[in-house]
Amino acid sequence: MPGSPPGTPIEAPSGSELPDLPLVLRQRNRDRLVGAGMALALVGAPAAVALGAPRDWWQVLVTLFVGGNVGLRGWTRVVRGLRLDRSGLSVNRGFLVHDVPWPRLYGVRRVDGNLIIAWEPDSTARVGPFQRVPALDDPTEEPRVSAGPTAERVGALLMRLRFLSTAAGNPDRAVTTRLGSASAPAAYYPLVAVAAACLWHIR
Known about the structure:
Helix content is 42%, strand content 21%. The protein is of the alpha+beta class. The relative contact order is 0.20.
């Protein structure tokens, strides 16, 4: 159907057991490891400039810009994920964290090993692929490395918690948004970059 969102919708399963809450879900370890390596550019690029590696001003600007861009992308890759508790869902997107009460969640769709999460009034986030969570494994199946089953089970858990919260008549609250941990290096990096450029200039 034209205009339909991507992915497969996930429904709330009936009678499934719940894992211990709160539950924190992170991206795959290898993705986070790559992100950690990328985040080192936040230190490496200013250090290279301060030590005089670039030969001209345009090289200084390119080095600092690329280093900041790559480093901040890596930082968000490390910290992105979900936190589930009885009151709601926290979606960590790196720069921002959205705290979504369960009644405000209105849909979850799976796209391969990722989830598209939608909440009121009109917000979406794509998260994953997730590190396998043993607490969500089906004991009747062999553990699988593929991210698809993990995403399916995470999505089912989200919808199950939403259903239980709504059925219990838990008080509804507004969605709130706060700064995530990536906002700190984003704030300090321009200062470090300027200091590195000044040291390059006086060398």
